[in-house]
Amino acid sequence: MIIAANLKTNLTRKQTLEYVNELEDFLNKNNISQEVLVFPAASSLNAHSGKVIIGAQNAYATANGAYTGEIGQDHLDEFGIKTILIGHSERRHILGESQEELVKKFNYYKELGYKIIYCVGEPLDVREAGYEPMIEYISDQYEGIDTNYENLIIAYEPVWAIGTGLTPTLEEIEATHKDLKKKSPAPLLYGGSVKVTNANDVLELQSVDGILVGSAALYVEHFCTMCEYAQKIENKN
Ligand SMILES: O=C[C@H](O)COP(=O)(O)O
Which pathway does the UniProt entry assign to this protein (predicted)? Predict the structure, then answer.
């Protein structure tokens, strides 16, 4: 399974280093062989060798150039980073990234062979409009994306569930994932208020291949516990 921590605009470089080292120790001591990804803030990116894979939360579709405030491929290369999050709801809805811009970014990093975690998910008003409009809305977020890309992972994150403590029911997650799985053979993660208290149940769902965790992942011991849950489920199956 794939267990991913999006640290967002949290943890300094020093705190991130401690976080990653503690996580790495835990994975090694507990023989955890799950795919564990950590996405630090851009200023906390660092080279790391071990089980933990470091990814970028964002980068511009360029190697370098005049794009004030952005980082590019050169900055990721410096740390051997080959994994990137694209289409996170905070980039779509807070920072205003359009589908067109996301596709451009997707294609740029796809050409370079990056592992791409591509996020999709509906806001509350769309959810409230009903299941069909919701699936249509999410389908539009697949537009222009190569859903057969071999290094693609998709994360379904309902916008209204992110950082709110609200989640769809397990049945709702399963139903949505089943429909989204028809769109792409890529592994499908669930994200949105995943905590130690609900992670195991979510991971046990058949259509869930992993989780993308925000707030709860800031506590490294909580994130370690979630990695352990995934390992136990895999060992059991
Ligand atoms: O990328 C992670 C998601 O935005 C989930 O965040 P959250 O776990 O704080 O709801």
Answer: Carbohydrate degradation; glycolysis; D-glyceraldehyde 3-phosphate from glycerone phosphate: step 1/1; Carbohydrate biosynthesis; gluconeogenesis
